């Protein structure tokens, strides 16, 4: 009796093992996380995404202007548009994106485990993340700085006023580290409350459990709109750090990294060349060889990175150039009305500069 | 001939063969599965260029954590955590600080939940309808809702709604509650403290020994135990005196605004505060003695010195865990007491025992045999559930480890450390409870 039972158990175990061990040669659309992981070990992410016919993009989902889910579960924001542009360039369909909402503490594990193809989630480019955490940073899509939000009637004006006060911060972020550094520099010792998720953190700030909230300035501005009384909060006039935010892929997959990198550059280059979502089809017939090469009407730039030669046409048709993306989500067509500032083209005194498409 | 006979049976019909073969298959299957997972991990780590190792523990952590249980330090003139940590320390130190915070919650949680659980469990036998039904309602509500939800409730709906520091609640000048935390009396560190603590330990041990000796005398020799009872009273009285006066209790003292240091802006603020709080407009000469005394609320700062500061995160997690686990313990206590046969009660009464002696000498020792094993697993649950404190910003081990692996990029290594730590803690709880269990089991002679 006992023997039969253990025999059955063994058979079941062996069966499940066989099911798990079957190597996922072609990653199907409904693939689980485990299979994705196995696929990473074989080819490039680029092939995985092409075979799957869908891009899995890790976003925050809670920051208006960057990535935000509305009531109808539509995603919007500058980070979301980068995902769409990559999907359009690789798959020809900007809607072939599956978004995964990730916490700041989950994001790198999700990327390393192959759960998402890329991150487009307000991630600051730092040397330790680029090296020891094992990531590759695509070009910066938003140059930001760390700020401090306080209640307008609190009387707090500088970081020196924070001795004995408390500051809320999200775990696993660069802001958490910068806060500690800056407070040490200012010679004060505030109480730091570290939350694993953004929502409880902002809730605690709203409940006055902390005197200040620190994060990237753009994020503070965006989140302020979701507080119970947005007008009662101000940003201090301090910039605590440089925060270059951009898309991220996993280390040691240069084929896939190149795709994400050059699609991002492509949006910037498009703005420089004056190509917009409206005029892109006309521009294909342009006389300018730079424009013709960029849009794939001439030459074979796309083939070099394993895409169709007109990959940028699809991306620009879907989301427009960088300027369009920025103005729609953060600039004058949005509720935030942020100036371009550092995020203007190099020709306009900003930091955006795409290497030549040639 | 037996030799031949054995050979005549084919091996697949031999019971002994299958017994061994199945074991071997099971081992191979488990080993294959484990190696598949390890292979996968290895490939992924190589791909991302990550190495496995614990060298990173020596690197500077450079992030700060919340001081949750912080007695006032006269030297630093501030509230400092029981386990000092500064952002310049290394990852190993910050993980230890997290562990200390976890242990504080576990130990205080286990003690409190046992007390609350036993009280609620006994309430279910009460003759008082309100107590009986009330405890039933509590058990049903608490046992059937998720713990995380309850923690958010205690944190966001209860402790976060405390008044602002300047409007703090004051309980007899000893306990102050506000959004800044809970300020309570705490023994000051001085040489007398250690002497008093030693005295308390000796007193408690002596009291327990006397208690058992007295019970033994009453049960075995039929003596009244009156002399020993006086001894117990004497010990109890001494302990109360030592606890009240020997520990040098320091009460939290509120730092108020000093009117002699007021400049024009402060005077203006004071007047504005009076106008808002007391509805008195156009106060003439706000800084006169009489006015300051009358409107002293506007001198409160909500900042304190001396005593002990508990963070709201600690309080919310402790209350949440105690309330949740106590509901399970109450049911375990009820089941334990009900498991003692009715005849035991009747027999004890027939022997002329009081109802409290019946409970103490007859029923409870027998109920303990049923209570302890499930109690063990409740204690372990409490220890593991303390990791949910991460959700409400309590800097316990899981919270700190989570930040550590994100900043250092070492998820596997850090996860391994957390897993082994929780495993060891639960092993210790289990070993202690098993030893206790053996002590109360029926001695079969």
Characteristic key phrases:
heterodimer, A: 358 residues, alpha/beta, D-Maltodextrin-Binding Protein, domain 2, 2 domains, 10-stranded mixed sheet, 15 helices, 39% helix, globular, B: 445 residues, alpha+beta, 6-stranded antiparallel sheet, two-stranded antiparallel sheet, 14 helices, 10 strands
What does this structure look like?
The complex is a heterodimer of chains A (358) and B (445). Chain A is 39% helix and 18% strand. Chain A is of the alpha/beta class and 358 residues long. In chain A, the strands form two sheets. In chain A, strands 1, 5, 6, 7, 8, 9, 10, 11, 12 and 13 form a ten-stranded mixed β-sheet that branches. In chain A, β9, α7 and β10 (191-195) form a beta-alpha-beta unit. In chain A, α4 (78-91) packs across α10 (254-273), α4 (78-91) packs antiparallel against α14 (311-319) and α10 packs across α14 (311-319). Among the domains of chain B are: 2-47, no CATH class; 191-247; 253-305, no CATH class. In chain B, the strands form three sheets. Chain B has a six-stranded antiparallel β-sheet. Chain B has a two-stranded antiparallel ribbon with strand order 6-7. At the A-B interface, α1, α2, α5, α7 and β10 of A face α2 and α13 of B.
Greatest interface (CB-CB under 8 A), with counts per chain: A-B, 56 and 50 residues
Number of discrete helical segments of chain A:
15
The run of helices and strands of chain A is HHHEEEEHEHEHEEEHEHEHEEHHHHHH
Distance between the termini of chain B: 49 Å
In order across it, which strands form the biggest sheet of chain B? 2-1-10-5-4-3
Low-confidence stretches of chain B: none
Rg result of chain B: 30 Å
């Amino acid at each position: 009796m006992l023997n039969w039972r253990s025999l059955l158990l063994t058979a079941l175990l062996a069966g499940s093992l066989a099911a798990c061990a079957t190597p996922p040669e072609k990653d199907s659309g409904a693939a689980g996380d485990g299979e994705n992981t196995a696929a990473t070990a074989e080819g490039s992410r680029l092939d995985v995404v092409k075979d799957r016919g869908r891009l899995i993009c890790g976003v925050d989902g809670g920051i208006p202007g960057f990535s935000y889910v509305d009531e109808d579960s539509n995603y919007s924001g500058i980070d979301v548009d980068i995902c769409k542009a990559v999907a359009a360039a690789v798959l020809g369909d900007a809607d072939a994106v599956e978004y995964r909402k990730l916490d700041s503490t989950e994001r790198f594990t999700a990327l390393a485990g192959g759960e998402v193809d890329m991150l487009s989630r307000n991630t600051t480019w730092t040397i330790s993340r680029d090296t020891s955490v094992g990531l590759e940073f695509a070009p910066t899509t938003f140059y930001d700085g760390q700020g401090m939000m306080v209640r307008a009637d609190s009387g707090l004006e500088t970081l020196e006023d924070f001795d004995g006060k408390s500051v809320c911060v999200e775990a696993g972020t660069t802001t958490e580290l910068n806060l500690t550094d800056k407070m040490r520099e200012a010679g004060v010792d505030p109480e730091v409350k570290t939350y694993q998720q953004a929502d409880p953190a902002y809730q605690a700030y709203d409940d006055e459990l902390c005197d200040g909230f620190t994060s990237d300035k753009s994020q503070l501005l965006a989140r302020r709109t979701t507080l119970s009384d947005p007008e009662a909060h101000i940003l201090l006039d301090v910039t605590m750090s440089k925060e270059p935010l951009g898309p991220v892929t996993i280390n040691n997959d240069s084929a896939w990294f190149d795709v994400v990198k050059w699609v991002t550059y492509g949006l910037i280059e498009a703005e420089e060349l004056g190509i917009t979502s409206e005029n892109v089809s006309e521009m294909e017939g342009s006389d300018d060889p730079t424009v013709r090469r960029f849009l794939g009407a001439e030459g074979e730039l796309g083939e070099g990175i394993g895409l169709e030669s007109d990959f940028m046409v699809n991306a620009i048709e879907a989301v427009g150039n960088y300027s369009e993306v920025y103005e729609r989500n953060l600039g004058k067509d949005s509720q935030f009305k942020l100036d371009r500032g550092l995020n203007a083209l190099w020709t306009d005194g900003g930091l955006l500069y795409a290497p030549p498409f040639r | 001939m037996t030799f031949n006979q054995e050979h005549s049976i084919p091996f697949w019909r031999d019971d002994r063969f299958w017994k061994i073969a199945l074991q071997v298959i099971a081992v191979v299957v488990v080993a294959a599965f484990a190696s598949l997972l390890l292979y996968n991990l290895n490939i992924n780590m190589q791909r991302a260029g990550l190495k496995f190792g614990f060298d990173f523990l020596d690197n500077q952590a450079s992030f700060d954590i919340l001081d949750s249980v912080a007695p006032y330090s006269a030297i630093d003139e501030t509230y400092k955590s029981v386990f000092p940590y500064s952002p310049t320390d290394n990852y190993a130190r910050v993980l230890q600080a997290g562990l200390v915070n976890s242990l504080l919650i576990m130990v205080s949680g286990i003690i409190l939940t046992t007390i609350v659980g036993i009280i609620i469990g006994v309430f279910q036998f009460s003759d008082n309808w309100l107590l009986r039904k009330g405890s039933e309602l509590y058990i049903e509500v608490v046992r059937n809702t998720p713990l995380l939800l309850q923690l958010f409730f205690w944190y966001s709906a209860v402790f976060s709604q405390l008044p602002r520091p300047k409007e703090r609640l004051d309980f007899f000048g000893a306990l102050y509650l506000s959004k800044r935390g809970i300020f309570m009396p705490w023994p000051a560190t001085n040489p007398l403290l250690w002497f008093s603590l030693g005295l308390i330990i000796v007193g408690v041990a002596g009291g327990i020994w006397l208690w058992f000796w007295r019970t033994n005398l009453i049960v075995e020799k039929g003596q009244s135990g009156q002399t020993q009872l006086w001894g117990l009273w004497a010990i109890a009285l001494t302990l109360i005196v030592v606890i009240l006066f020997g520990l040098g209790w320091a009460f939290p003292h509120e730092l108020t605004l000093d009117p002699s240091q007021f400049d024009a802006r402060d005077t203006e603020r004071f007047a504005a505060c009076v106008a808002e709080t007391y509805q008195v407009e156009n106060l003439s000469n706000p800084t006169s003695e009489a006015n300051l005394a009358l409107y002293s609320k506007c001198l409160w700062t909500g900042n304190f010195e001396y005593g002990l500061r508990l963070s709201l995160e600690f309080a919310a997690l402790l209350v949440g865990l105690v309330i949740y686990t106590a509901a399970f313990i109450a049911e375990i206590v009820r089941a334990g007491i009900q498991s003692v046969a009715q005849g035991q009660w009747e027999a004890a009464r027939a022997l002329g025992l009081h109802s409290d002696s019946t409970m103490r000498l007859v029923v409870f020792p027998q109920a303990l045999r049923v209570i302890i094993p499930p109690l063990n697993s409740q204690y372990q649950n409490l220890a593991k559930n303390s990791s949910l404190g991460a959700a409400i910003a309590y800097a316990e081990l899981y919270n700190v480890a989570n930040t550590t692996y994100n900043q250092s990029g070492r998820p596997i290594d850090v996860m391994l450390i957390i897993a082994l730590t929780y495993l060891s803690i639960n092993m210790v709880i289990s070993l202690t409870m098993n030893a206790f269990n053996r002590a109360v089991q029926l001695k079969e002679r």
